[in-house]
Amino acid sequence: MSNNRDKKRAALKERLIDAAEALIAKNGLRGLKARDITADAGCALGALYNAVENLDQLIILVNSRTLNRLGETSLETVQDAPTAEQKMHALGQVYTRFAVENANLWSALFTHRLPEGEETPDWHRAEFIGLIQQIVAPLSELRPDLAGRSLQLRAQTLFAAVHGVVQLSIQNYEVGAPQEDLASEVQALVGAMMRGIKEAPAR
Amino acid sequence: MSNNRDKKRAALKERLIDAAEALIAKNGLRGLKARDITADAGCALGALYNAVENLDQLIILVNSRTLNRLGETSLETVQDAPTAEQKMHALGQVYTRFAVENANLWSALFTHRLPEGEETPDWHRAEFIGLIQQIVAPLSELRPDLAGRSLQLRAQTLFAAVHGVVQLSIQNYEVGAPQEDLASEVQALVGAMMRGIKEAPAR
DNA sequence: AGATATTTTTGAACAACGTTCAAAAACACT
DNA sequence: AGTGTTTTTGAACGTTGTTCAAAAATATCT
Q1: Protein footprint on strand D: which nucleotides are under 7 Å from a CB?
Q2: How many Å from the CA of B167 to C1' of D13?
Q3: Of the candidates A91, A107, B83, B196, which lies 20 to 30 Å from A120 by C-alpha distance?
């Protein structure tokens, strides 16, 4: 049986993802080197290209892990909140917390770019979209007039607004809020958006 | 007089910035190569390191140009708007428009990272902070209770929120709004934030 | 078990990159 | 013209990601 081979191959791939994940968490995406990964995973340099198409694909696999971890964490949190508005606040806070506590891994989600001409695989794109879905339900409660594409679009916009505040705070210390103020600023932003969104004019 | 030498040196530096700017605009920050820059500027590879400390510094000089161009553009626009709320909408729209029309150069402002241990020069940091100042005045009108650090902080947060929507739309097509919806989503966001911010609870 | 076929592992080699530096050229001044 | 200083040059270096032929390991067959 070639089951043994498959197992070894899968095990190596996982060790490579583990090593890449740990290295990104420690040194950031910029400090990630193929030679460091293979050294930590205990294999030769070339083995990386046997287990995985290239370094970009390996980063995508790490990002997939991070995305799922973020999704699970926020799913747990959103369930505990009773009202739609409280769900929104909870989502904002859990996102902020996750980003701060996993700064380098979270950062890799949005700073990693494929070389020109290459496309993000569909399954990974779907994981991103799944993240937004948690906002759709409470938003739909607050704005029953929105549905379908408009609802999806507005949920993306709410996410992006909070994301922007978190990102500039963590990555761009020139214009971002100091990290000690981040949580309260996100709360203020979500609060303002929730108050403002209820009395939105029909277009 | 050594004026001639100074002039030639300044001229070369400017040609290098011109070339780098054009290359970033065409290929993005990722596609920027020292050899392409010097070829376009008409000098040897090593000359770049005589005119400028290194490639990162040259990128900062390009970013400074972009930032000033953005500042001037939005300053013109904000002056035409009569009310504070309309100023905010105008700022959001001009920012969106600038980012879309100068996608690669605008993107470089926020994706360029210095290697670990190096710091952004103070004069460049000040340029970023100047961008936020245009928001402070109208915000202060809408929220006279805010002042000093709280006012500055909230202005940064409003900027970051709009920035997030624009950035995800332009760079991260997985979660960002399609570009055809960007302007109206920014308008909706600014509108909601302005409505919500007026009735903010005293903390 | 041994022989053969297939797959995996290996690490030297390659191309592309930013950066350095000694030699050559250009320049300024007397 | 001669001399000292500055600038320009491009070959060379170290570090990247990636490839690939040879070697080792593994599976399959008789």
Answers
A1: 6-12, 15-21, 26-28
A2: 39
A3: A91
Locate all alpha helices (DSSP H) within chain B, ordered by sequence: 3-27, 34-41, 48-51, 55-80, 84-101, 103-111, 122-142, 148-171, 179-198
Please, is A147 exposed, middle or buried when counting C-beta atoms within 10 Å of its C-beta (0-12, 13-18, 19+)?
Answer: exposed
Write out pLDDT tens, residues B31-42: 999 999 999 999
- Please, what is the average pLDDT of chain B? 94
| Residues of chain B positioned with their CB less than 8 A from the CB of A188 | 154, 157, 200
Check B168 against A189: CB less than 8 A apart.
Answer: no
Q: Which residues of B145-179 are buried (b: 16+ CB within 10 A; e: fewer)?
A: ebeeeebbbbbbbbbbbbbbbbbbbbbbebbbbee
**A126 Cβ within 7 A of any nucleic strand D atom:** no
The model's confidence at residue B154, banded by pLDDT at 50, 70 and 90, is very high
Which residues of chain A make contact with B156, given a CB cutoff of 8 A? 168, 175-177, 185
Confidence of residue A1 (pLDDT cuts 50, 70, 90): low
Q: What is the CA radius of gyration of chain A?
A: 20
Q: Are A37 and A16 in contact (CB under 8 A)?
A: yes
- Give the DSSP per-residue string, chain A: -THHHHHHHHHHHHHHHHHHHHHHHHHTGGG--HHHHHHHHTS-GGGHHHHSS-HHHHHHHHHHHHHHHHHHHHHHHHHH--SHHHHHHHHHHHHHHHHHHTHHHHHHHHH--PPTT----HHHHHHHHHHHHHHHHHHHHH-TT--HHHHHHHHHHHHHHHHHHHHHHHH-TTTSPPHHHHHHHHHHHHHHHHHHHHTPPP-
First-to-last alpha carbon distance for chain A, in angstroms, is 64
pTM: 0.95
